[in-house]
């Protein structure tokens, strides 16, 4: 099911959480809303779910598959919502948590007990927790709770799945595993999904497309490749990865460039580069990170392969020259 | 036993003083109630409980509690829900107002109803013209009791619901549950022990309330006397055996309430501990 948002505004008192949001989410895609905290991404997600009402406006509308949704009835939207802190029903077992959405249906459309049993069991298999059906949420680990929350949302066969920072409260290792699992799951069930995250790595890895948000508006919408390699604004470039900032290197303009787009040369070899001195070397990792200070007292981070680093045979205090690769990103009008 | 830093004798002295105090102030008077009640034998005891005025007092006390409790449950839930889940102007004032019956003397709680509904009161003339009796009748007793007991449930539920938050309810709504289903299946189970605890405290006060009820009841024997008022009347008539017999009933009710309260506390601790395991 596709989602079309037109002219969505949301203010809380004097604070503007969303400004003129227009967004199309395609049927079956996994869309990530990425942005720093306070950028409005969670508010937007809650508006799609109907947990929050957008400010009324003449051109403002929310449509699912081209049909406007009734703003007053979140329970009729058939939207699966996974909360950041899971919001599992503490007084119900894992089984009953997942079965809840089926049990509260009106009599005419409620499945029989036997059918509920079958469907919940199937979902328990999907989240690989068959043997924990009788446990209570308090007896589960964070990762297990997250999976139960997801199964509970999937039980109502939602047309849209919304996930609010689904992995935010988990440790790095568990997060990695769940991310991949979610990616695979989405490939399998293909339900239109929107995921909110402040973790750019997570967004780039999981999503089909990424919406980068900043200060209540949309900065850029695109595939992970597009937003990473062709950022439309300085904010996007900065938010998606570490950048260096040059002052007035090219025709007096400001230039932003990623660490892996800089190259180091032994002094004399790259004579047109920026003359600098190595301040720190960090070799733990897949790339070597070198912190250099230019003669104009600018600090730059350079990333290079271990092989290249050992070829150069550099150490802290050595003079080097720094050059940019051809495809480096150049952006004007950026202020920090 | 836990070992403290204090020398042995300090510990025994402290325990001894506590026990002595409790014994003198609580156990002895409580025992005296039963001793006095049974002084003239079981026959007199039973007779003074079965006497019509006593039975009527018991009935009125239980009826009052039976009306006050559900009213309190509903009011307490509404107030706690409003305060814990919504932000609105005057929230602080509402919280203060809920505490008012705790702060005010029970006699005044009764008096305001006399001033409002009594023969000389603001609404007295209108009520008399329509033949409605509130003061010196059951409605007055119930009103006064509800007034003095209404903070119990709300006070118990507000911090509990604030702590629990409303995300589970939002989850229930997105899963298609109606407002009523969300309340009965999600909210109520979450707060049941807190609600029960508040109701038990409320019940204890409703049964034992003297001051406020005394002002509005008019002490009509066999009609508007509650158990505590009945005890007072018998005592003033030097009918000690009967007074203590009635008092023993109140004492037994009190002991039952404490037992129930402890049972609920134990359950709450257990379910809270279960929530914290993970």
Structural description of this entry:
The complex is a heterodimer of chains A (about 325) and B (about 280). Chain A is of the alpha+beta class and about 325 residues long. Chain A folds into two domains: about 5-240, Rossmann fold (3-Layer(aba) Sandwich); about 240-325, RNA polymerase II/Efflux pump adaptor protein, barrel-sandwich hybrid domain (OB fold (Dihydrolipoamide Acetyltransferase, E2P)), CATH 2.40.50.100. Chain A contains nine helices and 17 strands. In chain A, the strands form four sheets. A six-stranded mixed β-sheet of chain A has the order 6-7-8-3-9-10, with helices on both faces. In chain A, helix 2 (about 95-105) crosses helix 3, helix 2 (about 95-105) packs parallel to helix 4 (about 140-155) and helix 3 packs across helix 4. Chain A is elongated. With about 280 residues, chain B is mainly alpha-helical. Chain B has two domains: about 1-40; about 40-275, MetI-like fold. Chain B has 13 helices and no strands. Chain B is globular. The model of chain B has no long low-confidence stretch (mean pLDDT about 85). Chains A and B meet through strand 6 and helix 4 of A and helix 9, helix 10 and helix 13 of B.
Give a quick set of tags describing it.
heterodimer; A: 336 residues; alpha+beta; Rossmann fold; OB fold (Dihydrolipoamide Acetyltransferase, E2P); 6-stranded mixed beta sheet; 5-stranded antiparallel beta sheet; 9 helices; elongated; B: 278 residues; mainly alpha; MetI-like fold; 2 domains; 13 helices; 0% strand
């Amino acid at each position: 099911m596709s989602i079309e948002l037109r002219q969505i505004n949301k203010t809380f008192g004097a604070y503007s959480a969303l400004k003129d949001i227009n967004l199309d989410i395609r049927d079956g895609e996994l869309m990530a809303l990425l942005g720093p905290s306070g950028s409005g991404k969670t508010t937007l997600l809650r508006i799609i779910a109907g947990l929050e009402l957008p400010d009324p406006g003449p051109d403002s509308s929310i449509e699912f598959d081209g049909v406007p949704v009734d703003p007053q009835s979140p329970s009729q939207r058939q939207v699966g919502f996974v909360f950041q802190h899971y919001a599992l029903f503490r007084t119900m077992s894992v089984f009953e948590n997942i079965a809840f959405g089926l049990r509260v249906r009106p009599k005419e459309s409620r499945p029989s007990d036997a059918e509920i049993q079958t469907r919940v069991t199937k979902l328990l298999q999907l989240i690989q927790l068959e043997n924990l059906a009788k446990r209570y949420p308090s007896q589960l680990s964070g990762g297990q709770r997250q999976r139960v929350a997801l199964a509970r949302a999937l039980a109502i066969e939602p047309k849209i799945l919304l996930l609010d920072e689904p992995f935010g409260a988990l440790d790095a290792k568990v997060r990695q595993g769940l991310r991949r699992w979610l990616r695979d799951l989405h490939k399998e069930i293909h339900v239109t999904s929107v995921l909110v995250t402040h973790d750019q790595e997570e967004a780039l890895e999981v999503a089909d497309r990424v919406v980068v948000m900043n200060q209540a508006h949309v900065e850029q919408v695109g595939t992970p490749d597009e937003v990473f390699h062709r950022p439309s604004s300085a904010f996007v470039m900065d938010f998606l990865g570490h950048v260096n900032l040059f002052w007035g290197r090219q025709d007096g303009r400001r230039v932003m460039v990623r660490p892996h787009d800089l190259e180091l040369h032994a002094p004399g070899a790259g004579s047109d580069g920026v003359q600098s001195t190595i301040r720190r070397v960090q070799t733990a990792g897949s790339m070597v990170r070198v912190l250099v200070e230019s003669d104009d007292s600018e600090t730059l981070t350079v990333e290079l392969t271990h092989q290249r680093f050992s070829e150069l045979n550099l150490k802290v205090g050595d003079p080097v020259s720094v050059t940019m690769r051809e495809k480096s990103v150049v952006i004007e009008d950026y202020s920090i | 036993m836990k070992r403290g830093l204090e020398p042995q004798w300090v510990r025994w002295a402290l325990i001894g003083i506590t026990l002595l105090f409790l014994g003198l102030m609580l156990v002895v008077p409580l025992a005296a109630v039963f001793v006095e009640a049974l002084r003239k034998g079981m026959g007199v005891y039973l007779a003074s409980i079965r006497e019509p005025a006593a039975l009527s007092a018991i009935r009125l006390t239980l009826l009052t509690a039976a009306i006050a409790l559900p009213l309190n449950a509903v009011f307490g839930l509404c107030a706690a829900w409003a305060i814990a889940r919504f932000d609105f102007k005057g929230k602080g004032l509402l919280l203060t107002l809920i505490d008012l019956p705790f702060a005010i003397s029970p006699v005044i709680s009764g008096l305001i109803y006399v001033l409002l509904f009594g023969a000389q009161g603001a609404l007295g003339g209108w009520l008399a013209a329509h033949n409605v009796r509130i003061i010196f009748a059951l409605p007055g007793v119930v009103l006064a009791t509800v007034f003095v007991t209404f903070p119990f449930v709300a006070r118990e539920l507000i911090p509990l619901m604030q702590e629990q938050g409303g995300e589970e309810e939002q989850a229930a709504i997105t899963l298609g549950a109606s407002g009523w289903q969300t309340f009965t299946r999600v909210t109520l189970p979450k707060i049941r022990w807190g609600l029960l605890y508040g109701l038990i405290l409320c019940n204890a006060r409703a049964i034992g309330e003297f001051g406020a009820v005394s002002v509005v009841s008019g002490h009509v024997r066999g009609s508007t006397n509650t158990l505590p008022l009945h005890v007072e009347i018998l005592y003033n008539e030097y009918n000690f055996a009967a007074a203590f017999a009635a008092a023993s009933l109140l004492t037994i009710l009190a002991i039952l309430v404490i037992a129930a309260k402890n049972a609920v506390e134990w359950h709450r601790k257990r379910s809270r501990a279960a929530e914290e395991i993970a």
